[in-house]
């Protein structure tokens, strides 16, 4: 079974910090899992970013996951991919990247989670938990009850799949979320826009560990 970190930090296009600066800050704060999420650049710019980020992650012993862009597999030191398309064929994607690469997928429903588990993903990002400016979408907000229901249903079906809550999570949400039985959380905005980036990351880390 592959290593999956309980607190996953996601980079984002924001005006005051480049993706590389976000990763540097996160690694200095102790991040062990970075998801590079950039949907605004061409391949040559992406690879320039990814190579610089991979070097930082390598220095800190941090896992680097890239959102989408699975065609870049083998072109940089990438440990895995997170695919946001909820209709993606993960059986085909697994054949494409091989067994060693970590594959994560996005989900909004229990049905999504069941399909992801059946198609062999290593973990699932289930969301959105709450309103998020980082990744605007029209999917129903899940709230605490949505995660409780999902965890119970998967247990009933004997499905073991690390589920990470994502989408608009604030530090005061973490305790209740972890009590639902989910595996962990993924965070972007609450850290990126905090007054103190490193302190915010470490607060989330402590809250997830409890």
Automatic annotation (TrEMBL):
Pfam families: TMP-TENI. Residues 10-191 form the Thiamine phosphate synthase/TenI domain. The keyword S-adenosyl-L-methionine does not apply. CDD domains: TMP_TenI (cd00564). The keyword Signal does not apply. Keywords: Thiamine biosynthesis. It comes from the Bacteria. Signal peptide: none annotated. InterPro entries: Aldolase_TIM, ThiamineP_synth_sf, ThiamineP_synth_TenI. Pathway: Cofactor biosynthesis; thiamine diphosphate biosynthesis. This is Thiamine phosphate synthase. It comes from Pedobacter jamesrossensis.
């Amino acid at each position: 079974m592959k290593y999956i970190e309980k607190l996953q930090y996601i980079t984002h296009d924001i005006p005051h910090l480049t993706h590389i600066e976000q990763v540097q800050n996160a690694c200095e704060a102790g991040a062990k899992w970075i998801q590079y999420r950039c949907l605004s650049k061409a391949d040559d710019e992406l690879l320039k970013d990814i190579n610089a980020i991979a070097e930082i992650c390598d220095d800190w012993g941090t896992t680097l996951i890239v959102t989408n862009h699975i065609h870049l597999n083998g072109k940089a030191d990438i440990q895995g991919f997170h695919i946001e398309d909820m209709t993606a064929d993960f059986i085909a994607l697994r054949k494409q990247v091989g067994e060693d690469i970590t594959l994560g997928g996005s989900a909004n429903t229990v049905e999504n989670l069941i399909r992801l588990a059946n198609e062999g993903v290593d973990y699932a990002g289930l969301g959105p938990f709450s309103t998020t400016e980082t990744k605007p979408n029209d999917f129903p907000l899940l709230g605490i009850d949505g995660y409780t229901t999902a965890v119970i249903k998967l247990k009933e079906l004997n499905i073991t799949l690390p589920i990470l809550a994502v989408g608009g999570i604030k530090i005061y949400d973490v305790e209740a979320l972890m009590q639902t039985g989910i595996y962990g959380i993924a965070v972007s905005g609450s850290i990126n826009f905090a007054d103190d980036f490193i302190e915010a990351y470490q607060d989330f880390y402590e809250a997830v560990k409890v």
